[in-house]
Amino acid sequence: MAAPVARRSDQNFRVYRPPAPAPRAKRLGPIRLISALKRNPLECWTSEHFEKLVVAGGLPVGHVVIINHPAAIRRVLLENDINYRKDMLQRRVLSAGMGEGLLSAEGHQWRSQRRTVAPLFARRTVTQCAPAMMDAANALVERWRQHGDATTLDVAAEMARLTLDVLERTIFSEGFGCNAEEARRAMVTYFNTVGRIDPLDLLGMPDWIPRINHLRVRSTLRFFERSIEHLIAARRQRLAERANSGPNDFLALLLAALDPYTGEPMSEAEVKSNIFTFIMAGHETTSNLLSWSLFLLSQSDDWRRRVQAEAEREINGSVMDLAEHLPETRAVIEEAARLYPPIAAISRVAIDADELAGEVIPGGTLVVISPYVLHRHRLLWPDPDLFEPRRFLGENRALIDRYSYLPFGAGPRTCIGSTFALQEATIVLATITRNFSLHLAPGHKVWPLLQVTLKPAGGLPMIIRCNR
Ligand code: HEM
Description:
The chain is built from 18 helices and 12 strands. The chain is of the alpha+beta class and 468 residues long. Helix 8 packs antiparallel against helix 13. The site of protoporphyrin IX containing FE (HEM) has 22 residues, from helix 13 and helix 18.
């Protein structure tokens, strides 16, 4: 396979270098690596990861390769995906408590679920959610106005509230069955505890040895389980009393969804797992994407003005196709997802031997694709560490190889919620930027922390100034 080379556009990209750990010159030894992985896996990458297309070794578990070669990534996620299954580490960290929901199911069960829920996430259905997304954005504008001009708020926590609000309005429009603020706090606990990589996992210890993080998170998982059971029971009862009653939200569609091949609905356990999956997979990821976008805009007057002008021009039109009319806003979001991909690592285990970018990959190898490394790779991107949304505009967009840019993964297991997330982020970013200018609180140092998702460590305190 020929090595790809970064193609530069003829424009000179203007410079803002957002904060990120400098790659290490040398790999860490096993003990320091385990503790660094637990603290912040982003700080473990070395220069070779950002310069080579395939790097072998580096973790204390078995044989590992990190691949950045677009054609090799395409083979793992698409062409030969049948030979690669999700690994235990990913299942534990990314999908803890999600049971056999779409994110963690495999084989026949995954295929049937994906077919069953696909219509819920089709563009046509997602477009119907635009007014609810706009309502949530407007509610946030009202809340911020009530705080008064120049208030300092933790924008990361605010974005978490907002994405939860969007989920409530679209997926479970009668509410989570519990207090939304309680749900937000439970999610913080979930992500703070489950998200820490356990040394026992890295050492390949068997499942029956309890992980402290998972013991800690049990009561939080029980809280969600009870809330979700309550939600489903209330809706089923209402439907039993009167068919076709109740809101036409994602929950209604999920309860009515049938596998188009078999005509079968999902089991009760699958419905529960998938509700939990949609909340967990869709909430923190989108909220972090918005936080990073707002932070990056606060560092570039030029882009803040461009997004604001676009929003002024377009927001009075129809909300249904609004996101389609905001290309500059969308470019900022795509650039934020490049620099700070909320899901910063995708991994698989090779079932049988394979060949990737000319390297023999024995069966059992852990194959890691890190969107964070890939998106900053020296051979794949011009000026990879600089914030430059123009990469995603016009003809520059066409220069980006599909397998060099993976914020939502690729292939059959690509993110089912990507259209939903991008539409939400575009509507919300435009609405906020139209109404407010955000400035980082003096003295606060922004730093990316990988804990399940890639978030600003210690939140994002910002001064909110009203534009209008
Ligand atoms: C910015 C927001 C989001 C990002 C960056 C993101 C990222 C990803 C990535 C990288 C994957 C692939 C994982 C892999 O191949 O191992 C994935 C899968 C998935 N995502 Fe998202 N996601 C986002 C929003 C959402 C939303 C809003 C939902 C649902 C409401 C969602 C639900 C899922 C599900 C169910 C899967 C598993 C799909 C399958 O295996 O068939 N995601 N996501």
